[in-house]
Write a structure and sequence with these properties.
The structure holds two protein chains of two kinds. Chain A has six helices and no strands. By secondary structure, chain A is mainly α. The radius of gyration of chain A is 17 Å and the shape is globular. Chain A starts with a helix and ends in a 32-residue tail after the last helix. Chain B is globular. In chain B, helix 2 runs parallel beside helix 3. Chain B starts with a strand and ends in a 6-residue tail after the last helix. The longest helix of chain B is centred in the first third of the chain and has 13 residues. The chains are: A mainly alpha, B alpha/beta. At the A-B interface, helix 1 and helix 2 of A face helix 1, helix 4, strand 5 and helix 5 of B.
Chain lengths: 159, 122
């Protein structure tokens, strides 16, 4: 295993340990935006770095988690018990893939569709026309615009 | 030439450092926007700052606004981020970014951006 992959594993595991501590506290303080921002950042960092190493399975799962956490962070959803349970399942899922990478150097072909489906289901109240948990209907989640087709080559320079 | 890498991910800092040092660019690192500003305040002179967006303590956008307000007008700033929406790119441009590099990127994409800034041969 090369040095960068090792660095990625250590950093990701540290991030997930932080996420676990924050999730425990979140059960007591479901509206704590500082905790939600910290959890979001842990998952966001994993998603951001997986792309460099080509760990597609991990990227897909982290992305689904990041979408849910984004809505929580923006207070479009409330961190109720089912949501916290879903986030704990996300934590387990991410840890399990990291363990596989640590043991074998690749992420193998596990199946995360059920977990990703659950994470998407939990986002539904913020996206429906009549939000159940969302703070206010008029603050609908903005639809994320698609990334440019070749974003890495987008230049700010006009000349 | 000297670059300041500002990112809360150790992995990304190491990755960028590896690519930049191969081009003969010396590197220093900071883990958040405030630490980045502190480095700029030190004796060391930098030609380029590569700045992540989402960081604790101070975001990359706030760091960019701060350093432009403080008058680091010769410093080239490249935002290096996963934020892909046009709105983010425009906000960075408004705040004084010189280039915008989307994560994940490879050596080719980084080199292209550095060439746009006239810092390496294209």
């Amino acid at each position: 295993m090369d040095e960068l992959t090792r660095e990625f594993l250590i950093e990701s595991q540290e991030g997930l340990d932080r996420m676990e501590r924050c999730l425990t506290k979140l059960e007591e303080k479901p509206h704590d935006t500082g905790l939600l921002a910290e959890i979001f950042r842990s998952v966001h960092t994993i998603k951001g770095t997986t792309g460099f190493l080509g760990f597609k399975r991990l990227e897909k799962l982290a992305h689904a988690g990041e979408n849910l956490l984004g809505l929580l962070r923006e207070e479009k959803l409330v961190a109720d018990q089912p949501t916290i349970t879903g986030l704990l399942q996300l934590l387990d899922g991410l840890r399990s893939i990291l363990k596989t990478i640590e043991a074998s150097g690749n992420e193998s072909t596990g199946e995360d569709a059920a977990l990703i489906g659950r994470l998407e289901e939990l986002q539904a109240p913020a996206k429906s026309k009549h939000p159940v948990h969302a703070k206010a209907a008029e603050h609908e989640a903005p639809v994320r615009t698609a990334a440019p087709s070749s974003p890495a080559h987008t230049s700010l320079r006009t000349a | 030439m000297r670059a300041l890498i500002v990112d809360d991910s150790r992995f990304v800092r190491s990755y960028l450092r590896g690519l930049l040092e191969e081009k003969g660019i010396e590197c220093d690192e900071a883990a958040d926007g405030q630490a980045g500003i502190d480095q700029l305040h030190s004796e060391q002179l930098f030609d380029l700052a590569l700045v992540d967006w989402n960081m604790p303590v101070m975001s990359g956008l706030d760091m960019l606004k701060t350093l432009r307000t403080e008058g680091y007008s010769d410093l080239k700033v490249m935002m290096v981020t996963t934020e892909a929406e046009n709105d983010f790119i425009l906000r960075a441009l408004d705040a004084g970014a010189d280039e915008y590099l989307m994560k994940p990127f490879d050596d080719e994409a980084l080199t292209e951006k550095l060439a746009m800034l006239g810092l390496v041969e294209g």
